[in-house]
Amino acid sequence: MVTSYHITRYTAHSKETEMSRKGQLAQLHRLQEDERIRAQEEDIKREKKDLMNATWTQSLEESSQNKMLKRKHKEMQRELELTNKSIATLRKNRLRELIMKEELEYEKELNSIGLTIHKERL
């Protein structure tokens, strides 16, 4: 009977060991699966962060380009205003010179026929 006891005990122990091994393998498999999932989650987080940075950089570039275009447009407007002002001033000066020249010619013509223009002094 002693031998059967050992055999029974060995068989029971063997079943426990086999079940224990299966449990350990299952646990190891779960741990590996958890590790794989954690690595995937980290990859997803990293990709989200990269995407967010890329989106932010792109929007920053677009806004800086828009600001640059607006600034250039304002500069062009200002240059046009200054150019128009200088052209208007130049035209006024030339018109003034033309009027003075014509006035002198008119006075010469009147003087040649013996007439003068009455100028009131203030």
TrEMBL record:
InterPro entries tied to this protein: CFAP141 (IPR029375)
Stretch list, region Disordered: 14-34
Taxonomic superkingdom: Eukaryota
Protein known as: Uncharacterized protein
Organism of provenance: Amphimedon queenslandica (Sponge)
